[in-house]
Structures are given as C-alpha cells and as structure tokens.
TrEMBL record:
It is found in: Cytoplasm; Nucleus. Its main location: cytoplasm. Keywords: Cytoplasm, Methyltransferase, Nucleus, S-adenosyl-L-methionine, Transferase. It comes from the Eukaryota. This is protein-histidine N-methyltransferase. Residues 254-263 have a biased composition (Basic and acidic residues). GO terms for biological process: methylation. GO terms for molecular function: protein-L-histidine N-tele-methyltransferase activity. SUPFAM superfamilies: S-adenosyl-L-methionine-dependent methyltransferases. Belongs to the methyltransferase superfamily. METTL18 family. The keyword Metal-binding does not apply. InterPro entries: Methyltransf_16, SAM-dependent_MTases_sf.
Length: 279
C-alpha cells in the first residue's frame, strides 16, 4: 500500500513515497500499521556523500546505511509490538536508528515516555528519522522524541547523568562491522540503566563485512573479565530465502547457568549448521 506524505511534514524536498507494513499483534490479531519512506541517496545525502558513490548502501566511516530500511528493524518492531506492555512509561534509546521503526513502535504501540533516536549522519536524522517519526506518530508524540547525530565514539566520550540513563536500548543491523564494537559497547555501558535491557535485531552473519551475532557474542565473552554484558537469543527468524536473522537480548552481568549450557550445546551443533550455511 502506498500513501502520499501529509502536508504537515513541511520538508523542503518533494514528498517521497511512503510504504506501509502491518506489524500485526500475534496474540490478538490486532492490526499495527507502520509507515516508512523510500528515500534517494542523491536527494537526501547530497552533503554527506558530496559526489562519492551515490548508489552505495554503505560507505564505511562516511555513510552507514541509515537512509534505507533494513529488514531486521521490522523483526525488532514486531517483537516490540508483541511485547508492548514492557515499554509503557519507559525511556528508550535507539542506536543507529535510520528510519527508527523500532523506536517508533515503542512510542506508537508501547506508550514509551520518551524515545531518543541516534544516527551517524545528520542528513539521515533530518530526512529519514524525523520524517518517519512524524508520519507515524503526528505532532503530539513527536514532542516525546529527541534526535541526535554523530559517531558512537563521540557519544561514548560524553558523561551521562544517572537519571538520564535508559531502561531500554534498541538497535537493528548495527553489528556488521567488528571494528565498531568497542565504541558501541562503550555507548551502551554509559547510557543503559544498571538493570536495563538492550534488544537487538541482527543477522547471524554479515557476508563480506565479518560481523554478526557470533562475532558480537565472541567480543562480549572476551570482555567478560571486566564483568560486563551477556547476550541471549530470544527469537530466530529463518525464511530460508536469506541468512538467518535474530532478536537478541543483552544485559549486564553473567549469563544464568542454564543459558550458558544451552549456548554451549548450540555452539557444538552450530559448527555443522554454520558450515552448511556459509559454503
Ligand atoms: C545498516 S544501518 C541500519 C539502520 C536501521 N537501524 C535499520 O535497521 O533500518 C546501520 C546504522 O548504524 C549506525 N552506525 C553504524 N556505525 C556507526 C558508528 N560508528 N557510529 C554511529 N552510528 C553508527 C548508522 O547510524 C546506521 O544508520
């Protein structure tokens, strides 16, 4: 289904195409529509790319892919709709938000108190994130949002007061580049409440880039000496058309014993499966 952008948006460029997905609440069957925009690199990233490859989905260190909607953000938004009670009255941060569909789901269907949207590029925040939030929630809920742009390195360097920390951090398709893990985990460590939860939509593995669930798991295990975070798989999505996708939960502290055992059993089995998947 395609809609026309409402007049109230007031963005200077021509209104882009809006598409609508139904996140559908699994138990009740209730319809939960969410809108996203089809944006063009040439029109909406002209300052960021300034003549560089306009066709590319990602130019590392310059443009990190936020204009486009990536599939794991839909998985994550569906998970949020199905667990919407958890977000009522909570403060939420979406890291690497792009169009911010998961954060929007916590506002629109989860009644979050405040959502802070972060993306690497200010052009993405201006053209993609703000536009998607307005189209989905209107002016009233827009007042509960804050928008920030910049690298995780720069955000991790800033102090955060305890009362400004978040109960939930969301992120989708942010685990593709292992060289960002250090700064990503530093931002999370700085901004997450002590008992807060990070919910992640990701692919198991990103071909050609090297990151993904396994690498992030390995990274966190190596950091364990400092007693930081553990990761659990809460949903696996495999449509057999593309690489397996997952929703992950990341929390502070050691994994419970039964989770460790399940993980170990899975690792032993995953060797063969991973082999089949990759080659
Ligand atoms: C592949 S896009 C995913 C966008 C969106 N979450 C989605 O799933 O549709 C990766 C996102 O990660 C963010 N990102 C990647 N590396 C980053 C870094 N070093 N600092 C800040 N943000 C970064 C970018 O903001 C970008 O929007």
């Amino acid at each position: 289904m395609e809609l026309t952008a409402p007049e109230i948006l007031g963005f200077p460029d021509q209104s882009p195409t809006i598409k609508t997905l139904d996140l559908l609440h699994t138990l009740s069957g209730e319809s939960c529509p969410i809108h996203y925009h089809v944006l063009s690199n040439k029109q909406h990233l002209s300052k960021t790319l300034s003549g560089q490859n306009f066709e590319s989905d990602l130019v590392p260190g310059v443009y990190e892919g936020g204009l486009k909607l990536w599939e794991c953000s839909i998985d994550l938004a569906r998970y949020i709709v199905n667990n919407r009670e958890a977000f009522i009255g909570k403060r939420v941060l979406e890291l690497g938000c792009g169009q911010g569909i998961p954060g929007i789901a916590t506002l629109k269907y989860g009644q979050a108190a405040q959502v802070v949207f972060q993306d690497y590029n200010d052009e993405v925040v201006e053209n993609a994130t703000k536009r998607a939030v307005q189209t989905n929630t209107g002016e009233e809920l827009m007042g509960r949002c804050l928008f920030i742009s910049g690298s995780w390195e720069s955000i991790a360097a800033q102090p955060v007061a305890e009362e400004m920390k978040f109960e939930f951090i969301l992120m989708s398709e942010t685990l593709y580049n292992t060289s960002y893990y250090d700064s990503l985990v530093s931002v999370i460590d700085r901004t997450l409440k002590f008992d807060g939860q990070v919910i992640i939509g990701t692919k198991t593995f990103y071909f050609g880039l090297g990151g993904g669930h396994f690498e992030f798991q390995r990274f966190l295990s190596q950091k364990k000496q400092s007693g930081q975070f553990h990761l659990s798989v809460i949903e696996k999505l495999n449509d057999l058309k593309s690489i397996e996708r997952m929703v992950l939960l990341m929390r502070r502290g050691e994994a419970p014993q039964e989770e460790k055992q399940a993980e170990q059993m899975e690792d032993e089995g995953a060797g063969e499966e991973g082999f089949q998947l990759s080659f």
